[in-house]
Design brief:
The protein is mainly alpha-helical. 71% of the residues lie in helices and 5% in strands. It has a domain at 12-254 and 387-506. The chain has a two-stranded antiparallel ribbon. Helix 3 (47-80) packs antiparallel against helix 19 (471-502). Keywords: Cell inner membrane, Cell membrane, Electron transport, Heme, Iron, Membrane, Metal-binding, Transmembrane, Transmembrane helix, Transport.
Length: 532
């Protein structure tokens, strides 16, 4: 494949986004876990919970700072690499990003400072409020960013203005409560909670294997397992909701994920395994679960899910409809206020398909000059490459069920087996630390790669969205970003490993004072100093 401006721009943004999302899920989840630990400290007064809060809070702070550093660059890229996209849909896409900066990020950033430097200046309750405000701010940031991204997947609450040649918002309420955005938000933050739970579980398991910080590790495993089990179950349930919303908002993406080449009789089966062959439009060695896809995608037994071939034919019809809109648009642009009412009515009737006519610009400067063969090619372009989507989705789902099993096991051991964990299970927890990041990156790959060839689904093709840059400029900036982000990633790993090896700071005087004050009420095992 020839690498051009579009491909390099996509690669650069994908690289920065995937690097950035190495930090985001841990930030989302650790902020909640730290707030839960401090809540227990305030309720019980036990020093160990304060030490746990400080230790995991330190790791949260490292991750938060580097996440901010990698995230800022992404927003600049909209203007640098995707200037026509910014011009075309900036009125809608920019609004939630601005709110995120003004409402969520400022809230989060302000109270992060109070969290780290306010331990001896704020009361217990005041500091607890700060911890929860940090957690709320982190999750609010995700909400507004995912509202913006959700609109790209399902562009509601906006319409095209032929006078300005831009999309304009018609309903902020529809943009905010877009079903795709809301499903993506709850699914993404739940995945972040799982990421943090697996991280806390794995690090705590490593301490137990080393026979260090045993008291802290056991309690951390109890929190991580219970929080992680609830989160892992919610990820699966909320992922099902995302699949259901895709049935009527992103049908081609769903068909590609399932390698569903032809429309199946309702209810459609779910393909567990197979090797998609896009050239032959079939899946070799496919293993199906009858009825499962129909139930997941439509929640019924009698509703069909359209296959790729049917959707390509529909895309061809929409391209022809879009050509009518494009022809009327050229008249409106030329005549402006003098445009006849019937011309404007024609445009309004076909405006929803205008983006499909833009797909022809890949083959011809003026879409109205396109041949039937070019229309067929453009319709075929609406099919993303199937096999990466097919396998990325299945890796993500398999890991999701693995998280449920792991968290359920550790929850059982922590709740009913006296917090005793077999060494093989502890080693498994340590080995599983990278798995949530793999699942999260697979999820984002499915979401973004599955939307191609669109930047805004059905509205603006990716090929039209890029800035007028040279291949050399893009290659050099891509190399620079890779180098810069790699340095940040190395710094992150070095700092996290340094503080994990160092372990928590145990305030012996505070702990002994607490034990002495409660000596008559504590069991002998609680009075004894735990092995470190």
């Amino acid at each position: 494949m020839e690498i051009g401006i579009v491909e390099l721009s996509r690669l650069q943004f994908a690289m920065t986004a995937m690097y950035h999302f190495l930090f985001v899920p841990l930030t989302l989840g650790l902020s909640i876990i730290v707030a839960i630990m401090e809540t227990v400290y305030v309720m019980t007064g036990r020093p160990i919970w304060r030490q746990m809060t400080k230790f995991w809070g330190t790791l949260f702070g490292i991750n938060f700072v580097l996440g901010v550093a990698t995230g800022i660059t992404m927003e600049f890229q909209f203007g640098m690499n995707w200037s026509y996209y910014s011009h075309y849909v900036g009125d809608i896409f920019g609004a939630p990003l601005a709110i995120e900066g003004l409402m969520a990020f400022f809230l989060e950033a302000t109270f992060v400072g109070l969290f780290f430097f306010g331990w001896d200046k704020l009361s217990k309750v005041q500091h607890l409020v700060v911890a929860w405000l940090v957690a709320i701010g982190s999750n609010f940031s995700a909400l507004w960013i995912l509202i913006a991204n959700g609109w790209m997947q399902n562009p509601v609450g906006a319409e095209f203005n032929p006078m300005t040649m831009r999309m304009e918002m018609t309903s902020f309420f529809e943009v905010m409560f877009n079903e795709v955005a809301q499903a993506k938000f709850v699914h993404t933050v739940s995945a972040g909670y799982v990421t943090a739970a697996v991280f806390v579980l794995g690090v705590s398991a490593w301490y137990l294997l080393q026979n260090r910080h045993v008291d802290l590790a056991r309690r951390s495993i109890a929190v991580a397992a219970s929080f992680g089990l609830a989160s892992a179950l919610s990820v699966v349930v909320l992922g099902d909701e995302s699949g259901y919303s895709a049935t009527h908002s992103q049908k081609m993406k769903l068909a590609a994920i399932e390698a569903m080449w032809e429309t199946e009789p309702a209810p459609a089966p779910f393909t567990v395994f197979g090797f998609p062959d896009q050239a032959a439009r079939e899946t070799h060695y496919a293993v199906h679960i009858p009825f499962a896809m129909g139930l997941i995608g439509t929640r019924s037994l009698d509703t069909q899910i359209p296959g790729i071939a049917e959707l390509v034919a529909q895309a061809g019809d929409r391209i022809r409809s879009g050509l009518v809109a494009y022809d009327a648009l050229m008249d409106v642009r030329a005549l402006r206020e003098a445009t006849p009412a019937e011309t404007r009515a024609t445009f309004d009737a076909h405006a929803g398909d205008l983006g499909f006519a833009f797909l022809l610009k890949k083959y011809v400067d003026d879409p109205r000059d396109a041949t039937e063969a070019q229309i067929a090619l453009a319709a075929g372009d609406t099919v993303p490459t199937v096999w990466p989507l097919f396998w990325a989705f299945r890796v993500m789902v398999a890991l999701g069920f693995a998280f449920i099993a792991t968290m359920a096991y550790f929850f059982w051991r922590a709740s009913f087996c006296g917090m005793r964990f077999p060494r093989p299970a502890l080693w498994l927890a340590v080995a599983m630390i990278p798995a949530p990041w793999i699942a999260a990156e697979m999820g984002w790959f499915v979401a973004e790669f599955g939307r191609q060839p669109w930047t805004v689904d059905g509205v603006l093709p990716t090929a039209m969205s890029v800035s007028h840059l040279s291949v050399t400029e893009l290659a050099l900036t891509l190399a620079g970003f890779v180098a810069f982000y790699t340095v940040l990633f190395v710094i992150e790993m070095a700092l996290m490993l340094k503080f994990i090896r160092k372990g928590p700071y145990l305030d012996v005087a505070e702990t002994e004072s607490w034990r002495a004050a409660r000596r008559d009420r504590l069991a002998p095992s609680a009075i004894a100093t735990p092995a470190e």
